[in-house]
Amino acid sequence: MRVGRFRETILIEAATPGAADGYGAPAVAWAPRCTLRAELVTAEREGAPAGSAGKRDKRTVTFRTRAFGGVMTRDRVTWKGDLYTVTAVKSGDFAAAAGMELTCEALT
Questions:
Q1: Which domains does the chain carry?
Q2: DSSP track, 53-90
Q3: Distance CA 68, CA 12 (A)
Q4: How far apart are CA 24 and CA 21, in angstroms?
């Protein structure tokens, strides 16, 4: 893992219980956990088939970054102003440096 490849800045946020909404249900608030420099490994877009009413494109991105403890699939990532939900977290020592890989899907 080379630091020079960390060209992107991502913000990892965790869900926290917020104040109740007008119906008494707890609203979810998002609290920033950390801002990390990351390498964009892949960015894919899967288009909806023709004639599939109401379906949207699915955007998936994978980031590689330094390890940060406690990142879970219930967290979300903000990158370039877009929100992504974390779908997978892989930990590894990417070439002898502690790192993690986050696979995220765009929230639409």
A1: 3-106 (2.40.10.270)
A2: TT---EEEEEEEEE--TT--TT-EEEETTEEEEEEEEE
A3: 10
A4: 5
Dist CA 28 CA 41 (whole Å): 30
Residue pair 60/82 in contact by the 8 Å Cβ criterion: no
Cα distance between residue 104 and residue 82, in whole Å? 11
Residue 81 tokens, joined:
């102003």
Q: What is the per-residue pLDDT across 48-96, written as a single tens digit (0 to 9) for each?
A: 565 555 566 789 999 999 888 889 999 999 999 999 999 999 987 655 5
Start-to-end C-alpha separation, the chain: 31
